[in-house]
């Protein structure tokens, strides 16, 4: 019995060693892919890790060296994993006369967002580049000004301004046309 057992030992041991070697191999391979939390890309036949949000690629990986990712510089950002060699410049809300203000500030991993200043509305429904002051109503507001729509004033106000405009234009025209006639008529009737 004893001799039979010891003769079996080497082959059994060999299998255990092989299996454990393989599992060591597997775990180290898994370990490498797990290090690439943001995914991978190919560079000159080598699989490299993508750079995460908030960083940019400083150097590609090689067969012997891991790649290098560096934090985005001031006023730049990257919001998704990538392998670009720079970050995107942050959106600015401070263009002159644009009437915009920053409502979401820029970080390394997120762009800034702009919204219209108070009492201003944007003409476009997508990214706003320019905001206009909301119309002020003298009579009353029918629909309040929103971020995308101008104020709608009550009908009365608009009717009033139209009548005023018609009167304002008609009276001078009538006076200009009738003035000379009246003048000559007065001169004729006077002895
Ligand atoms: C900031 O403004 C934009 C529109 O310009 C809007 O889509 C976004 O929801 C706003 N975010 C916050 C946090 O107010
Ligand atoms: C803005 O006005 C348009 C029509 O001019 C309308 O279809 C839209 O619903 C309005 N949006 C808001 C937010 O009031």
TrEMBL record:
Disulphide linkage map: 72-87, 116-131
Cleaved signal peptide residues: 1-29
TNFR-Cys repeats: 71-114, 115-153
Domain called TNFR-Cys: residue spans: 71-114, 115-153
Keyword set, alphabetical order: Disulfide bond, Membrane, Signal, Transmembrane, Transmembrane helix
Keyword Signal carried by entry: yes
Entry's transmembrane regions: 165-186
Pfam families: TNFR_c6
PROSITE patterns in the record: TNFR_NGFR_2 (PS50050)
Gene3D superfamilies found in the cross-reference section: Tumor Necrosis Factor Receptor, subunit A, domain 2
Protein name: TNFR-Cys domain-containing protein
Species of the source: Pagothenia borchgrevinki
């Amino acid at each position: 019995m004893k001799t039979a057992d010891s003769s079996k030992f080497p082959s059994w041991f060999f299998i255990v060693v092989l299996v454990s070697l393989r599992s060591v191999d597997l775990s180290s391979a898994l370990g490498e892919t797990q290090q690439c939390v943001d995914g991978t890309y190919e560079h000159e036949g080598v699989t490299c890790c993508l750079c995460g949000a908030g960083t940019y690629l400083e150097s590609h990986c090689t067969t012997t060296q891991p790649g290098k990712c560096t934090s985005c510089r001031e006023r730049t950002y990257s919001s998704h994993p990538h392998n670009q060699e720079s970050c995107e410049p942050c959106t600015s809300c401070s263009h002159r006369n644009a009437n915009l203000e920053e409502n979401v500030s820029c970080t390394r991993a997120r762009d800034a967002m702009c919204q219209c200043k108070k009492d201003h509305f944007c003409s476009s429904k997508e990214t706003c580049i320019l905001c206009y002051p909301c119309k002020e109503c003298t009579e009353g507001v029918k629909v309040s000004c929103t971020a995308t729509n101008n104020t709608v004033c009550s009908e009365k106000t608009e009717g009033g301004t139209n009548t005023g405009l018609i009167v304002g234009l008609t009276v001078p025209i009538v006076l200009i046309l009738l003035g000379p006639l009246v003048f000559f008529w007065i001169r004729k009737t006077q002895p």
